[in-house]
Amino acid sequence: MSNKNFGFGTQIRKSPYFDSTVKWGATGFSVYNHMYIPRDFGSPEQNFWNLIQKAILCDVAVERQVEITGPDAYKFTQLLTPRDLSKLAIGQCKYILITNNEGGILNDPVLLRLAENHFWLSLADSDVLLWAQGVAVNSGLNVQIKEPDVSPLQLQGPNSGEIMVKLFGEGIRELKYYWLREYDLNGIPLIVSRTGWSSELGYEIYLRDGSKGNELYEKIMEAGKSHGLQPGHTSSIRRIEGGMLSYHADADINTNPFELGLDRLVNLDADINFVGKDALKKIKKEGIKRKQVGIEIDCEPLKGPNTTFWELQKDNEIIGKVTSAVYSPRLKKNIALAMVEIQQSEKGNKFDVISNEGKFNCTVVQKPFYDPKKKIASS
Questions:
Q1: Is residue 59 domain-shared with residue 154, that is, in the same domain?
Q2: β-strands 35-40, 98-99 pairing
Q3: What sign has the CA pseudo-torsion 171, 191, 97, 334?
Q4: pLDDT for 178-191, tens place per residue?
């Protein structure tokens, strides 16, 4: 979508940061959770270097929140996810999966616990508000489920900590990985968490008043000026390096957690009730038929991320698909996440990838491709 012809209508929402992102150079948008998200601030490779060397500010207001409150909010939130929430403290966040009755993944949000019975699901790209309201109808639980006026920004990269100190003071340094705090920044109400979709040091800043969007964006850009902060967009290169999922690409309603190696997010033995528990028990018992792997593709640098699924073939038989592929300028390799038949998932296995740029050899390798223990983000 070019700058001259955005063609914005009312059925797709604009973010509260929209005017600022255009002012700071956004030239292309895509749609995510029925909202426009800026996807182009120039070269994706430069955006990647900005992220890993200094810091970028990303408008991720498209990460819509589902707010769950009421006397049974905790019990209901547990009903949505196979991850055991019994140790989730107030002020803590957790990465969770939301599964349907067949054990398929509906979303992979970050869950924030703001109070005893006050939760936010910070969503990937699917309509969990409708799902949650539907689940609530016959649950017999006393809950209120709605979408609050909340819009996140992501400040990510090695300099993000110093920029946050400039904005919020030294105390922000004590905020631990996957914890949150409430702030008021000159009359702008916020929740700040040590989370993000980059595998780098980073923060998410949840604005609780959409009328102050551009004011907040400008404040952060001003605070980051001396630290090399650039406007940016979530980096496909960095998230694939980090093995992070993109919903609809690497996971969908027909994918189960075990295929993705996310067994740690499924607690089948705990005394908890959740949608899909019986199905996931059965899948675990019978074993999976396919598995997500990392692959390296042996060809010239890919011109950009894949926009379709690419077939994987062995002896001219289809054995899987590439779900996310990109060239990493840091690793100097074409890297990809792929879903393959279980018998083809061993490291070192070789097969052919049929891409829009031709047919190439590829090899199964260890994933994540960079910083496998997430030391950078959690340090």
A1: yes
A2: unpaired
A3: negative
A4: 999 999 999 999 99
Q: What is the CATH number of the domain that holds 348?
A: 2.40.30.110
- Rounded to whole angstroms, the Cα distance separating 119 from 112 reads 6
- Contact assessment for residue 203 and residue 158, using Cβ atoms and an 8 Å cutoff: no
- Which of 62-85 are b and which e, b meaning 16 or more Cβ less than 10 Å from the residue's Cβ? bbbbbbbbbebbbbbbbbbbbbbb
Longest dimension (CA), the chain: 63
Quick: pLDDT tens for 5-42.
Answer: 566 778 899 999 999 999 999 999 999 999 999 999 99
Residue 271 lies in a domain: no
CB 155 within 8 A of CB 102: no
In single-letter form, the type of residue at position 209 comes to D
Range of the domain at 339: 289-379
CATH for 47: 3.30.1360.120
Q: Are residues 217 and 337 in the same domain?
A: no
> Do residues 42 and 158 share a domain?
yes
Give 123's contacts (C-beta < 8 A, 6+ positions apart).
Answer: 33, 63, 64, 65, 66, 107, 109
